[in-house]
Amino acid sequence: MERLPALALADRARVLPGIPMPGVPALPMPEHVLDAVRHAAGRVRPRQSWGTPELRRAIAEHLGGQSGLAVDPDRELLVTHGAQQGMSVVLRALLATGDEVLVPAPTYFFDGMVRMAGARPVYVPGRPEHGWATDVDGLRGAVTPATRAILLCNPNNPTGHTPSRDELSAVLALASEHGLLVLADESYARYVHSGPGYAPQQLLRGEWPELVTVTSLSKNYAFTQWRIGYVHAPAHLAERVHRAFEWDAINVGDVPQAAACAVLSGPQDWLDVVFASFRQRRDQLCAALDAAGLPVVRPDSGIFVFPDLSVLGRRGRDLEDLLLRAGIPGVAGDAFQGPGTHARLLYGGAEADLAEAGKRLAALAG
User: Fold this and answer.
1) pTM of the predicted model, to two decimals?
2) Are 282 and 102 in contact (CB under 8 A)?
3) Residue 250 burial (CB count, 10 A)
4) How far is Cα 126 from Cα 179, in angstroms, rounded to an integer?
5) What is the pLDDT of residues 197-243, one digit of tens each?
6) How far is CA 170 from CA 136, 265, 366, in A?
7) Which cofactor names does the annotation list (predicted)?
8) Quick one: pLDDT at residue 29?
9) Same-domain status, 8 and 40
10) 147 and 289 within one domain
11) At residue 199, what are phi and psi to the nearest 5 degrees?
12) Is the same domain home to 211 and 132?
């Protein structure tokens, strides 16, 4: 099995001088979070494989306040070691050997997780001229007797496309027609800057209830070092995922759960200012790409752009190496099951670093 593409690129980038282009904001933890961590580190509690009641209640209250969702914290929420592990466990719990999973592409690095579950990913490409929107007709044409699920990335990584409610509703209608699970990674919910706005798929569960959502708290609250997320699913599916999780990891530690609980329940001002700045940084990098003659669909969300770099005459690993030699880390599009002539570039760095990246991209484009 191949390595996770982003981590493999990061290892190659370490040996070359380059522009800092992080994918998450580097923020110091506020004092109320550190207080919660210190308190949790000083006590010992029985292990709770679903997650601490305090954190599950905080998640349920957050979902209710943010989206109006009524969530049973005791039966519908499972705390995991980040969204990556959450989705991996979901796939292994709910799929069987030989199942097929329809995946709109480009998309996140789900490939290895689906294959480890014994299933086969079937990619349905979107098109940049359509804003990378989900090709629902393409999904319909890809359904076979072996199809078991549709796997979404909402908002999408790497394109930044954020599906509208109508787009999600069309996907759920297809799932209902064929009795399919709809699995969604919603790790970039907080990173929406424009477009129709983020709509959690669970808002549409009245249209089709067989929905499983995986979310990264550490991504959405800028503390990825804690590796914490959760699975939100109806009780009959959540219980199956919970059993698989117990065999996989038993439980998440109390310290990261305490940090997540404090982040969810405490003040948000320390995050809001930084997240608000991402739209400006997106616009800065997109303007530089436009000026260099490098086509890009302006993303609705995320902390990345996905430009067409065909003019550079490289693709895949060769394109990555060309960018790295220019000091620009970028993952080629084929790693996301998209066109190898594209690359995901991050804009989480300082404005001066983004300006320098723009100059170097222009030089490469000639």
Assistant:
1) 0.96
2) no
3) 10
4) 23
5) 899 999 999 999 999 999 999 888 887 778 999 999 999 999 999 99
6) 7, 34, 43
7) pyridoxal 5'-phosphate
8) 83
9) no
10) no
11) -120, 110
12) yes
Give yes or no: residues 129 and 49 share one domain: yes
Q: Please identify, among 263, 281, 308, the residue that sits at the C-terminal boundary of a domain.
A: 263
> Is the pLDDT assigned to residue 182 strictly greater than 80?
yes
Q: How far apart are CA 303 and CA 26, in angstroms?
A: 13
Instruction: List the domain range (segments joined by +) for residue 309.
Output: 3-25+267-363
| Residue 18: per-residue pLDDT | 87
CA–CA dist 45, 55 (Å, integer):
14
Residue burial 108-141, b: 16+ Cβ < 10 Å; e: rest: bbbbebbeebebbbbbbebebeebbbbbbebbee
- Name the residue among 37, 94, 47, 112 with its Cα closest to residue 249: 47
Q: How many domains does the chain have?
A: 2
Which tens digits make up the pLDDT trace of 287-322?
999 999 999 999 999 999 999 999 999 999 999 999
DSSP state, residue 311 = G
DSSP string, 322-348: HHHHTT---EEGGGGTS-TTBEEEE--
Are 299 and 282 within 8 A, CB to CB? yes
Q: Are both 48 and 180 inside the same structural domain? A: yes
What mean pLDDT is reported for the chain?
Answer: 95
242 contact partners, CB below 8 Å, separation of at least 6: 49, 50, 78
pLDDT in the model for residue 292: 97
Residue 195 has pLDDT above 90, yes or no: no
